[in-house]
Amino acid sequence: MPYISTVNVNGVRAAAGKGLLAWLAVTEADVVCVQETRATDAQVRAALAPALDAGWQLSHAEPESKGRAGVGILSRRAPSAVRIGFGSSEFAAAGRYLEADFDDVTVASVYVHSGDAGTVRQDEKYRFMAELGAYLTARTGDFVVAGDWNIAHTERDLKNWKGNLKSAGFLPQERAWIDELLAAGYVDVVRSLNPGVDGPYSWWSYRGRAFDNDSGWRIDAVYTREGIASRAVSARVERAATYAERWSDHAPVTVEFAEKVPEPLTSEYPLHGHGRGVRAFSALRISSRAASPVTD
Questions:
Q1: Are strands 253-257 and 232-237 parallel, antiparallel or unpaired?
Q2: Whole-angstrom distance, CA of residue 293 vs CA of residue 118
Q3: Is a pLDDT exceeding 90 seen at residue 276?
Q4: Cβ of 212: how many Cβ atoms within 10 Å?
Q5: Eight-class DSSP state of 260
Q6: Tens of pLDDT along 126-146?
Q7: Would 218 disulfide with which of 84, 157, 229, 279, CB 3.0-4.6 Å?
């Protein structure tokens, strides 16, 4: 079954040396959306050279601002098309949005601003959200958008929600924006597969004992259109066993999708299970396998 992962690497060059390359060598993921590479295309390719030599394909949107943002998509096979940005003139070169087509499935990697309540940085975040929201609402078909959203949607999505009611990442306007995405037909598949629980958190501050106490935020998420959401069968946060084993302040979030089931030829053979359609999502796979809120 195909797997899609997302992780904010908090600087790809640092992460590669601390464990990202080792994780890529063993992950089940067919597609990995990465955020905050903080590097040029050439620097990302150099940092990930062992993984690329092992067969991973890289698509990357480098940031115009040095040391900030940058998003990428690593895949087991080359996509049929890649697009940087979502039509915004202000954010076209920001390195915050990238999407790639794999036959009838489009996968996007997004990095929303962290923001800062009551400042121009928060105003910029809201402008980005408004344009991104309009674009996502217009999308149809089998569409998956994964990344660091820098928004905890509900009280279950961060440990200390009472202390963050006026903090960027948990502001009413940000949370309402997620409500609008859900109302427009998107599904938070990690939450839908983990209902009624706190977390699972995906980002923990490096300060204090946040990681050891699991005092985190669930800001890394996978959203899909409703059709493909019905084929999401499992979701997990790949939390490091110990603080010392972390290679980012975020942990990878991985979702498993079932293949599409062929449509029945007659009404005598109703569909049971996940999804409808003819082509299989397994087109994302190839046969062989290679042997946190953050500052912007």
A1: antiparallel
A2: 16
A3: no
A4: 10
A5: P
A6: 999 999 999 999 999 999 999
A7: 157
First to last CA, the chain: 34
Using a 10 angstrom Cβ sphere, with 0-12 exposed, 13-18 middle and 19 or more buried, the burial of residue 173 is exposed
CA dist 277 → 24, 105, 172 (Å): 31, 12, 38
> Is 148 a residue of the active site?
yes
**Closest by CA position to 219, among listed 184, 258, 256, 248:** 248
Contact 35, 9 (CB under 8 A): yes
pTM: 0.88
- Mean of the per-residue pLDDT values of the chain: 90
Contacts of 131 (CB under 8 A, 6+ apart): 86, 87, 88, 90, 91
Contact 72, 61 (CB under 8 A): yes
Q: Average pLDDT, stretch 283-287? A: 36
SS3 287: coil
User: Distance of alpha carbon 171 from its chain centroid, rounded?
Assistant: 21
The one catalytic residue among 148, 220, 249, 296: 148
Model confidence at 259, pLDDT cuts 50, 70, 90, reads confident
Helix (H, G, I), strand (E, B) or coil at 137: helix
Q: What gap in Å lies between CA 224 and CA 16, rounded to an integer?
A: 28
- Confidence band (pLDDT; 50, 70, 90) for 295? very low
Q: Rounded to the nearest 5°, which phi and psi values hold at 131? A: -70, -40
- Asked whether the predicted pLDDT for residue 257 surpasses 70, the reply is yes
Confidence of residue 1 (pLDDT cuts 50, 70, 90): very low
Are 219 and 227 in contact, with CB atoms under 8 Å apart? no
